Amino acid sequence: MIEAVLFDMDGLMVDTEKLSTEALIHCAKEQNYEMSVDETLQVLGFTEAGIYEFWINYFKDTKVDGKKLTEDHYKYIENVLFTTGPDKKLFVEELLIYLKEHNYKVGVASSSGLHYIKNNLGKTGLEKYIDTIASGAEVENGKPAPDVFLLAAKRLGVKPENCLVLEDSKAGIKAAKSARATVYMVPDMFRPDKEVIEITDNIVENLGEVIEILKKIN
């Protein structure tokens, strides 16, 4: 029985994955490196520490400074997020309203830092629907480890197996399955590959479809 819904944030609730891709390509170009969109998608769902580690190792023994690239890309993102704020994803508020009206507990379990999560939820006006927040910065292991989902479920007082997780990244989907939660993929920048299709419980094109599924379940 689904008692709670846990949302990833970036690319799922707010349209920040495209911004991150834009930032990485821009900052790589400043170091005379032409980064592809596919390259940027390699860090989808990673924590901040994980992103630093990935790019430092990725550009090891090259002329690109992976640490500077990561720092510059975060500055680029912050310039947008902390001024105008991100755009809400399609049907996210409608789904949140439905969940609150039907007494589901609602959590956000994101790889982003708490300051990013609180800023994005505040700027978009979505914070009023959220019962708890769990950040990848609060746990020992980031996605694809289940830690952040287990923390969110614990804070809600709900068993992980009674949670529905909504995710857009492979790392997040693997984390949710490791937590023994039900997981639906809502694709954004990353389209489901064979592995994702095999392990996810459902793939929907937008959050509005989740409302219709929950209506049938109930």
UniProtKB/TrEMBL annotation:
InterPro entries: HAD-like_sf (IPR036412), HAD-SF_hydro_IA (IPR006439), HAD_2 (IPR041492), HAD_sf (IPR023214), PGP-like_dom2 (IPR023198). The keyword Disulfide bond does not apply. The keyword Hydrolase applies. One of its GO terms (molecular function) is hydrolase activity. It comes from the Bacteria. SUPFAM superfamilies: HAD-like. Keywords: Hydrolase. This is HAD hydrolase, family IA, variant 3. It comes from Gemella bergeri ATCC 700627.
